[in-house]
Amino acid sequence: MPVRIDWDRQPVSIHSEDKNELEELILFLKHKHSIKKRSIVMEDRESGGFLFFIYQPCDPRWIMEFYQR
């Protein structure tokens, strides 16, 4: 399922309809790219679905890598 990433906001937010997908993405970013500064997955009250925030630099290619595996 596709995710929506808001690169223009600070911190960056990642949105999806699937909570498990976001949790798997978090684990991938943590283990493969050492992304540790992030929020928990929470309900997106504005757009529906779920989201989490990343509080450190994240290369967009890392997220593409998750979906290409």
What does this 3D model show about the protein?
35% of the residues lie in helices and 22% in strands. It is an alpha+beta fold and 69 residues long. A four-stranded antiparallel sheet has the order 1-2-4-3. A hairpin with a 6-residue loop joins strand 3 (42-43) and strand 4.
In terms of topology, how is this protein built?
Layout: E1 4-6, E2 12-16, H1 19-33, E3 42-43, E4 50-54, H2 60-68
Antiparallel strand pairs: 1-2, 2-4, 3-4
Briefly summarize what is shown.
The protein has 69 residues and is of the alpha+beta class.
Low-confidence runs: none
Mean of the pLDDT scores? 95
Radius of gyration: 11 Å
Q: How do the helices and strands follow one another from N- to C-terminus?
A: EEHEEH
Question: Total helix count?
Answer: 2
Q: List how many beta strands DSSP finds.
A: 4
Largest sheet: 4 strands, antiparallel
- Provide the structure class: alpha+beta
List keywords for this structure.
single chain, alpha+beta, 4-stranded antiparallel β-sheet, 2 helices
